[in-house]
Specification:
By secondary structure, the chain is α+β, with helices and mostly antiparallel strands. The protein contains 16 helices and 19 strands. It has a 5-stranded antiparallel β-sheet.
Length: 472
């Protein structure tokens, strides 16, 4: 806990609505999206960059640790306080201004507390959108802090690629404000400083505004469920689809039969689209899209997709066993229900991994072959972004399993999965969820010492105060 005098000063800086101190009103800020729960000394809720600066400056001068929190949708304990009660939460939920659209530049400058869905709702009338597609609805500051990818990374890239500029406040005694946002797409005048703050979990500074690249809203789309001939043919199928469709291919999402079954069981409104209700072992959701309106005489996208799939099907030793084109809203509804379905099927031990694209299916095959002997009664419910090498490798343990009360069980399981993913396959232990307390030990284990020293040095220069949940 911190002294009353600090609470009084912070309330003076932020006003009565800007500072929460009562246990009941802080609960939502102390509780993470997946199991983590801490205890906050207070929750600061600034509305402007100037207020963020004042709070950071005061807390640094008085050695009060702060954990920046955006939408609190993260899954690695990166945005919640620890259990000590000594950390304050710096929430961005009221930092929703400005909103400045530059239609010609195809960019928008917004407050870091604005939600993704709200941003796209405001842009829809202009025929534009921020092209990071997620099942959750995070705030933009958190998306930048974790460099979110999403389901359409294959076509549009990640947040880093779509960020033109930021405004950030440093955790130093002055609460220094850096304006790193110009809206330029090309600017080779030195270090691209904004990239230092993107993907570093808020530890190097608090992003308060961002200038984002926008894309034309897709006006046509078509989707299909693809069943590969065998797991080791998925890569061949991806290459064939890219070769035939080029930039039209906007998503290539892998979904295991276990994950699909969990979603169908949890969400009764979902329709089981598979013949006889039998869910295949592995399914690909492929999407093609165009940003232009249909032109006279132009082949519809569903016909394009059917033609391409027929061509792949007719090849000798085709990588495709079955396929059917269906309504995009229904197919995406099933894909977006996977997370919730898996989460409700038992206690979830989740991994956010990435690999070279050709290593995704071999990694999954090894896990399915070796995990049952090492950790019995643990179900693999994987899904992910096969087109960019990302895998949400989810392990579901029955809620009444006595091993869940033993911390060593989860630790040994995590260590084994990361050992195979990182050491044997050269993958990443965090594809798009950043680090957080859950991944701290693995950051220290798998990040080379010279790089960790460089990161620690940058942290000491940019934000020497106690900021964030990651120890760089």
């Amino acid at each position: 806990m911190i002294e009353t005098v600090h609470i009084e000063v912070l309330r003076e800086l932020l006003g009565s609505k800007g500072l929460l101190t009562e246990a009941g009103e802080m609960t939502a800020y102390e509780t993470g999206a997946r199991y983590d729960c801490g205890r906050a000394a207070f929750v600061a809720r600034p509305t402007t960059t100037a207020e963020v600066s004042a709070v950071l400056a005061y807390c640094v001068r008085n050695a009060i640790p702060l954990v920046p929190q955006s939408g609190n949708t993260g899954l690695v304990s990166g945005s919640t306080p620890d259990g000590s009660g000594s950390e304050g939460v710096l929430s961005l939920d009221r930092l929703v201004a400005p909103f400045s659209l530059d239609r010609i530049n195809r960019s928008v400058t917004v407050g870091a507390g604005l939600g993704l869905s709200e941003l796209n709702r405001r842009l829809e009338g202009e025929g534009l959108f921020f092209p990071i597609d997620l099942g959750a609805d995070p705030r933009l500051g958190g998306m930048l802090a974790t460099n979110t990818g999403g389901s359409r990374f294959l076509r549009y890239g990640d947040v880093r690629r779509n960020t033109l500029g930021i405004k950030v406040v440093l955790a130093d005694e002055a609460g220094t404000v850096l304006d790193l946002g110009s809206g330029l797409r090309k600017n080779n005048t030195g270090v691209d400083w904004k990239q230092i703050f993107i993907g570093t979990s808020g530890a190097f500074g608090v992003i308060t505004e961002c200038t984002l690249n926008l894309e034309p809203l897709p006006r046509q789309s078509a989707t299909a469920f693809l069943v590969p001939a065998a797991p080791d043919r998925v890569a061949d199928l991806l290459v064939a689809m890219e070769g035939a469709l080029g930039s039209y291919l906007s998503a290539f999402e892998g979904m295991s039969g276990n994950a699909l079954s969990a979603a169908l069981a949890h969400v009764p409104s979902l329709r089981n689209p598979f013949q006889g209700g039998i869910v295949p072992d592995f399914v690909i959701l492929a999407e093609v899209s165009r940003s232009s309106l249909p032109r006279e005489g132009e082949q519809p996208l569903d016909a394009v997709l059917e033609e391409v799939l027929a061509g792949i099907w007719e090849k000798p030793e085709a990588p495709l066993a079955d396929a059917f084109v269906g309504p995009p809203h229904e197919m995406w509804a099933l894909r977006h229900a996977l997370s919730e379905g898996v989460r409700h099927s038992g206690r979830l031990i989740a991994f956010d991994l990435s690999f070279r694209r050709g290593d995704v299916m071999p990694f999954l095959a090894r896990m399915k072959a070796e995990l049952p002997a090492r950790f019995d009664a643990v179900t693999i419910c994987d899904f992910g972004h096969i087109g960019d090498g990302g895998v949400h490798f989810n392990l579901v343990v029955p809620r009444d399993d006595p091993r869940l009360s033993d911390a060593a069980f989860e630790t040994s399981l995590r260590e084994w999965v990361f050992e195979v993913a990182v050491e044997d396959f050269g993958g990443s232990f965090s594809a798009e969820h950043a680090i957080g307390r859950k991944n701290q030990a693995f950051y220290e284990r798998y990040t080379p010492t010279p790089i960790r020293k460089l990161a620690a040095g940058l942290k000491a220069i940019s934000s020497p105060g106690p900021l964030g949940s990651v120890n760089f």
